[in-house]
Give the backbone structure.
Amino acid sequence: MDRVIQKKKWNSKRIITIVLVAGILLLIAASYYFTSGKSKLNVERERITISEISKGSFQEIIPVNGVVLPITTIYLDAQEGGRVEEKFVEDGAMLKKGQPILRLSNTDLSLSLVNQETSVYNLLTQMQISRNSAQQNTVNKLNQMADVESQLKEAERIYKLDKHLMEEKVIGLQEFKQAENNYTYYLQKRRLAEQILSQDSVSTKQQLDQAKQSYEGSQNALKVMRKKVDDLIVRAFIDGQLTSLDAEIGQNKKQGERLGQIDVVDGFKVRVDIDEHYISRIFIGLTGSFEFSNKTYKLKITKVYTQVSNGRFQVDMQFETEVPKGIRRGQTLQIRLALSDEMQSILLAKGGFFQKTGGNWIYKLNESGTIAYKVDIQLGMQNPDYYQVLQGLKPGDKVITSSYETYGDNQELVLKKE
């Protein structure tokens, strides 16, 4: 009797075929995943910096460097040119106002002073001679006036006498007319003498006034010349410390040439260099702070120099309260300059990622922390520690903030432990 033999469903050939097909499908899926999807790169977690996005108080601050300077500096320039003959003090000396610093010599100025003094003496002598001559001329005019007055009185007496005698018919008309004409003549002569005397008085006064003005002008010129000679001795304008003295015995200095400076040592200011990028945001009243001897000190901008040189401009800052003890002229300070008030913001820690991304995107971790993928972000203001996040991240998100230089253009980073 024949027996029906049942055919096996899972023979070796079929199993091999199924395995091959499954392998091919797996390879196709893997190829599609790794080639047609997002590009990935394996990175070791221990070699990256992961930061968590937070929310807190934020203030835009930029780091700047400042140099400590005296609060007031007076520059010493040569008022007159000359040869350095003598130095009374050395660089660094503490000075009192009016104290001599050095002496210059100038033979041309000295000769001009002698000539001016001689001119003034000659003018004074001439003025004295003119005054004496005018006085003598006036005396002569007065004597002439006295003679005329005397002659007039005599002519008047004879005229009155002859008039009386004429009325009494003692003398004739001809004799009377002679006396009358004589009297009239002396009246006119007296008026002329009075006019001459008056004109002489006015002329003498004008001459004396002109001589006086000329003498005073010469005296003023002499004072100016003496001051120019006095300026050959360079003196301190204020109390302070002499610095940057540039003068040696025998050296010739031109008029207006810088000789040194005097620093007022009762206070300091800080001269700060700032990148020109911030010039439109810097104004008087902005504050900054710095650390010195484990203590924080505050500064305030008091003057802005808008001239830009080598991409930077300068401001002057003064201490808001006390000046740190032990601070010295020329010392460099690292200052945190505040450009905004404090505000609540989403904060992203600073890191090397910014050099690669420019703040336009960042690698953000998934919830399991195994993969980091690119996300677009928008950053606002910054300070030395944080960026202000405007869009793309929220508090609690974790991102990679270390350098991206070796990541290329990969869309995702697979984080693995060593």
Helices lie at 12-36, 107-167, 173-230, 353-357.
